[in-house]
Amino acid sequence: MTLFLLTCLDHEGALDTRMATRPAHLDYVATFGAAVKLAGPVLNAPDGGPIGSHFILDVADQAEVEAFAANDPYALAGVFKAHTIHPFRVVVGNL
Questions:
Q1: For labeling, which of 48, 62, 71, 94 is most exposed (least CB within 10 Å)?
Q2: How many helices (H) and strands (E) does the chain have?
């Protein structure tokens, strides 16, 4: 397996949709079990509100990350405007 960093950024004004979709999003992420090594919101510095999401996923390949991103309820509800995927290596700390 390989670690990948998935960063998803929200559309401006998507907070209400994000909050309404949050339970479905959390249920979806939970179905991936140990493959999700870390997950949480990207926060706006001035007010601390969410503006996106970060995930570190331990999966076979980038295609699995693409499928994860495409089927996330946030993506399906139109919360995310864009995402990036990069292979990731832990150098300090541990997962």
A1: 94
A2: 3, 4
The torsion defined by the Cα of 44, 16, 8 and 91, in degrees rounded to 10, comes to 50
Amino acid at 30: A
3-state secondary structure of 57: strand
pLDDT, tens digit, for every residue of 42-68?
A: 999 888 899 999 999 999 999 999 999
Band of residue 69 on the pLDDT scale cut at 50, 70, 90: very high
What is the SS3 assignment for 91? coil
Alpha-carbon span 20 to 1, nearest angstrom: 33
Question: How are strands ordered across the β-sheet holding 36-43?
Answer: 36-43, 50-59, 2-10, 80-87
Please choose, from the candidates 36, 81, 67, the residue with its C-alpha nearest in 3D space to the C-alpha of residue 54.
Answer: 36
Contact assessment for residue 4 and residue 63, using Cβ atoms and an 8 Å cutoff: no
The pLDDT of residue 47? 86
